Amino acid sequence: MADRLSALDASFLYVEEPFVPMHVGSVAILRRPESGFDYARLLAMVSRRLAYLPRYRQYVEFVPGHLARPVWVDDADFDLTYHVRRSALPAPGSDAQLFELVARLLARPLDRDRPLWELYVVEGLADDRVALVTKTHQSMVDGTATIDIGQLILDAEPTEPEGQGEEVGRPPWPEWAPSSRPGRAKLLLDAVTDSLRRPAEVVDNVRSAAQDLTSTAERVFDTAGDVATTVRSLVRPAPRSPLNARVSGGRVFAGVSANLEDLREIRERHGGTINDVVFAVFTGALRQWLLSRGRSLEQTETVRALAPLAVRAPDSVGFSSVGLLDNRVDPCLVDLPVGEPHPGLRLQHIAHAMAEHVRTRRSVAARAMVRVSGFAPATMYSLAARAASSLSDRLFNVAVANSPGPQQRLYAGEAPLERIYPVLPLSRGQALAVGVTSYHGGVYFGLNGDRKALSDVTVLAGAVTEAIEELKGTNW
């Protein structure tokens, strides 16, 4: 039987546009070890581990006439060197130059005739560092059968270089026998068979349901408390904001690093959770950014954020040790008080709003999330992007996803991971998407913006640092 995409997975392919690619990504910065870290070693590492992710050697085959959803098909001509690529900056490359390269790489849609992922190793960074940039289509990463490629190559302990002694360019990947490609007749026959078994499933219903606010609310929010909280937001669109703009083909990206201990200090002094502090920091940064554009802010003015929340499924008793198998990510709408001039009161407002969302859901504790093997936030952000795609772009101004990461050092081979910035995709009509994660004592903000609407993304990035200092210096 055909390995058919789910309705949700297929929807990400249907709604994708050239200027709105539906892939998630990450920017990992590694310290080059004495033994070295280069393209050949990364190629060998990925080739040996790809057997754990069979989806990464499959491409999407569309059914003639769109009589059924597309199917996953083994790529008999799979070329690992096409997906694992090498790039470089003029040495010594700066972070700003790296982020400019990242923006250009992530703006390009993935090739639909091949498996929907890419991994770049970027050399030439200053201070003997290298960067890994990942791109994975949302249709692939569901947190159940498939995780993000970044989760596969990071380990809790350094590992010996793989493929030593092999000819460069010909890494020793294991033998793999792809299944034969289904012909047109086979695709049509399977489509008819599936339609007879599940006549209610029609592809067009996916697109219409995604645009129907009522059905979206019923589908995503499945408890009385959720519906009551959500309806209050659905009856009114998001406030007007420069963050809602027609998305162009260009992107800008900026990464911001912070000290986790600073956020813990703010939490200890003013209450709430680390997540509350993260959103208060971002709210303060948005306020400064809006003021820098000459905007006059009323004290009651807000920006509505879509804040995906990891929750346990109703029948789940715990958090899986190998993935997000028994859990899901639900979209939560939170009004950020950008008009409030006092940083302490902004934090109070956000803590109250977040507590209301958590009260109506079985939220997954941060300490449980970081126990997931590998770098789970990479997979978490794909699920967060899925949650963002389930709501109309008229309901929120910006997507902000925060996922805690491990506090112990991780490694790609023998190369220690220093920093990692998440990259969330833009939705139609959304000029900014923000990913936040913590790792090894640091907190990392990844700001992905539209190049026309958010050309001053570096101003917003600098405002994040200023907002942390503002909260640290606040006395009640």
TrEMBL record:
Q: What class of enzyme is it?
A: transferase
Molecular function via GO: diacylglycerol O-acyltransferase activity
**Which intervals hold domain O-acyltransferase WSD1 C-terminal?**
327-472
Q: Which Pfam families match?
A: WS_DGAT_C, WS_DGAT_cat
Q: Where is this region: Disordered?
A: 159-179
Q: What is its EC number?
A: 2.3.1.20
Q: Name one GO cellular component term.
A: plasma membrane
List the InterPro entries hit by this protein, alphabetically.
Acyl_transf_WS/DGAT, O-acyltransferase_WSD1-like, O-acyltransferase_WSD1_C, O-acyltransferase_WSD1_N
Q: Which UniProt keywords apply?
A: Acyltransferase, Glycerol metabolism, Lipid biosynthesis, Lipid metabolism, Transferase
Q: Which reaction does it catalyse?
A: an acyl-CoA + a 1,2-diacyl-sn-glycerol = a triacyl-sn-glycerol + CoA
Pathway given for this chain reads:
Glycerolipid metabolism; triacylglycerol biosynthesis; Lipid metabolism
Q: Does the keyword Nucleotide-binding apply?
A: no
Give all residue intervals belonging to the O-acyltransferase WSD1-like N-terminal domain.
5-278
GO BP terms: namely: biological process involved in interaction with host; glycerol metabolic process; response to hypoxia; response to nitric oxide; triglyceride biosynthetic process
Q: Which family does it belong to?
A: Belongs to the long-chain O-acyltransferase family.
Q: What is this protein called?
A: Diacylglycerol O-acyltransferase
Please report the organism this UniProt entry assigns to the protein.
Answer: Saccharomonospora xinjiangensis XJ-54
| Lineage, opening ranks | Bacteria, Bacillati, Actinomycetota, Actinomycetes, Pseudonocardiales
